[in-house]
Structures are given as C-alpha cells and as structure tokens.
Design goal:
alpha+beta; Nuclear Transport Factor 2, Chain: A; 4 helices; 9 strands; 27% helix
Length: 195
C-alpha cells in the first residue's frame, strides 16, 4: 500500500473511534413558573443570589432524568444554576467567550471540532462548575469569582455538519480541552404548536 492509502485508513479508524465514544442523548428544556420550581432550590436562590437580575426558571427532561435550572444575569455575566428535583445544587454554568479559555485547551478543542465535523459554527460556550460532594457556598464562590480550576468543564453548543447532515450538538470538554461527551441538542419545546 502507498503512503496516502495508509494515511487515509488511519484517519478513518481514528474518526470512527472518536465518534463511537460519543453518546447521543436527547434533552428538552422548557420555561416554568416560579411556583413549579423546587422549594429548597428557591431558598438557595433567594439567600445566595442577592444581586441577580432577570431570574427565569426552567425544567429540563433528559430521558427519564429531570432537573431544574435558574437562569439569570449577575455582574454582567449570564449564569445558569442546575438543581435536582429535590432542590440540591448540581452545578453552575457561565456563558463565556473563546478568549476566556486557556490557549492550549482551546487549541485542542478546535482540533477536535475540525477533525469531527466538515463544517461547524459555535453558537454558545459555557464554563461549568460541578457541585458533586462539595459545599454549596464553595461552588458558588468559585463560579462567581470565575476561577480557573482543573475541575471545570467547557460546554460547546455548535451547529455541525458531518456525513449525516447538519445538526446541533452539545459537546463537553474538560479543563485541558480533552473531549468527554457529545449529545444532540434539540430545539426548544414547541409542543404547544403541534396539532
């Protein structure tokens, strides 16, 4: 075999291996009333988010998992705080720009996107702080100070074109820019439009 054939085979195997690890999950998010939000989560919001503006409440259904999200602006940044149905804090996301990501990590992320999509357009980037087994105050402090920790994640919402056509994807990367998870991002819930 010549060099081009070998290179092509290696590239095909690499791309098929990467996409095999991607998990496809469907999720729906829709806005709800404040009264439909978990009480424990509302207490946390009222106690900890004093300067927050335009708080909106959402319910997210992913398969058989349900979570609740409060979205708001604080200090000119857009935040999203996710809670369990019992009102326990799951994590916090902050909308960021590419220049907020360290250069090495962003280079790895763009390399992954270029290798797995013919074309792509980044719609939104979020920095995620998970609250697994951590004190609520500590998680909130880390997020509101926008600390660069090894435990943070980056969530990319993209329009990507591949062999199946164009689709929206939500892709999760770790702090070093290594790929962790990909799922299809569905449009907002338009059930009320269906007849």
């Amino acid at each position: 075999m010549n060099f081009k054939t070998v290179l092509f085979l290696v590239l095909c195997i690499t791309l098929s291996t990467n996409s095999a690890f991607a998990q496809v999950k469907n999720e729906r998010e829709h806005r709800i009333r404040k009264s439909q939000f978990p009480e424990q989560a509302l207490l946390i919001i009222h106690q900890k988010l004093v300067n927050a503006k335009r708080i909106r409440f959402y319910k997210e259904v992913e398969g058989n998992k349900v979570s609740y999200e409060a979205k708001f602006k604080k200090d000119r940044l857009k935040y999203s705080i996710e809670f369990t149905p019992e009102g326990k804090l799951k994590g916090i996301k902050i909308a960021i720009q590419p220049l907020d990501i360290p250069n090495d990590a962003y280079a790895k992320i763009t390399t992954y996107l270029e290798n797995n999509f013919k074309k792509y357009r980044i719609q939104k980037i979020q920095q995620q702080y998970l609250s697994e087994g951590q004190d609520i105050d500590k998680t909130l402090k880390e997020a509101f100070q926008n600390l660069m920790l090894p435990s943070i994640k980056y969530v990319f919402l993209i329009n990507g074109k591949n062999d199946n056509g164009s689709e929206k994807f939500e892709i999760l990367f770790n702090a070093e820019g290594k790929f962790e998870l990909m799922k299809n991002a569905l449009p907002p819930n338009y059930d009320h439009v269906l007849y």
